[in-house]
């Protein structure tokens, strides 16, 4: 089981399923939403995810048509994103996980948007947009 929370501790969740393929997204929306060079996220089964505290603190912002980004309205910590066209999937923000997990990102995506100050020098595959097979 995976446990997670927001920065202020008002929101807590648990997830009983398996994490999907973890990627680092560098699109301009993710950079702005995270305030960093990208976001590490993994798809999860929405039906195996549940709030254990603070569900009333969750707010969603529609960052593009059909895409919502969820965060704690008290501290602003990002928690997940979701798409209207994939209602059973949440893209969990790995920075919100409290449990130690054995997982690493497998690719950088939307690398066409990486600014010069955020170039990465690792061996992960890079995709101009999304990786093949992503929902």
UniProtKB/TrEMBL annotation:
PROSITE patterns: CENP_V_GFA (PS51891). Keywords: Lyase, Metal-binding, Zinc. One of its GO terms (molecular function) is carbon-sulfur lyase activity. Belongs to the Gfa family. This is GFA family protein. It comes from Noviherbaspirillum saxi. Transmembrane segments: none annotated. Coiled coil: none annotated. Residues 2-118 form the CENP-V/GFA domain. InterPro entries: CENP-V/GFA (IPR006913), Mss4-like_sf (IPR011057).
